[in-house]
Specification:
The chain is an alpha/beta fold. Helix content is 36%, strand content 16%. It contains ten helices and eight strands. Helix 2 links the parallel strand 2 and strand 3. It is globular. The two termini are 24 Å apart.
Length: 285
Amino acid sequence: MRIDLHTHSTASDGTDTPGELVRNAAAAGLDVVALTDHDTSRGYAEAIDALPSGLTLVTGAEMSCRIDGVSMHMLAYLFDPEEPALLAERELVRDDRVPRAQAMVARLRELGVPVTWEQVARIAGDGSVGRPHVATALVESGVVPTVNDAFTLDWLADGGRAHVAKHETDPFEAIRLVKAAGGVTVFAHPGASKRGHTVPDAAIAEMAAAGLDGIEVEHMDHDAETRVRLRGLAKELGLLVTGSSDYHGSRKTVQLGEYTTDPEVYGEITRRATGAFPVPGAGGA
């Protein structure tokens, strides 16, 4: 089985619609794909309607969190999307995205960059607006060559000249909320140091003690040394190890299925979840 547990659609900051994403996942030879848009479950219905035979969909979300001043992302799988407390927290984070993106545009304009809010809103479309949309505007404006080049201290990285903080969930609260909604939690790309400061191992140990299920190890932003270190940490803490593409369509170079999760780990995730169940493909619309 080929299993990719971290992808994004136009419901947040990917460039494939949810329907396109599942069709592309099947074409890439995947058996299981997780839809984990930022702080939203809005893409589920379209993805399920378009789900091809032979492909299973795992519903999820990537939650924006912060601990001791460091931003981090928490992947939540197979939770009940209508559970009131978790839904309210995701909506709180999502509602803060528009004023935050507008403030980043204002800072960029103060720095002499000719981007506009109308441009960022067009790029985001109906998706949950975020930094990748602002980064794409920087690419369109010729300021940086790629989206990844916008995530530096010169521009949009944490602490960067145009960075603006947003509401982010305490990760211990995220773990509690997701578990109460029947879901499973995995710390996304914990060693992605190119994105800014990373969470120390001691804090990950505290999260493990609070019920964190796993950490994402196989990821494009982790070099070989980081993967070895994270695997050792996961073994020490009794955490599951996942691998995922973090696919964003054309917004990033990584392809669906470039990094995958072991079938036994996937099986354990599904065994732990009680809020929702994987959806087998029925041929699509």
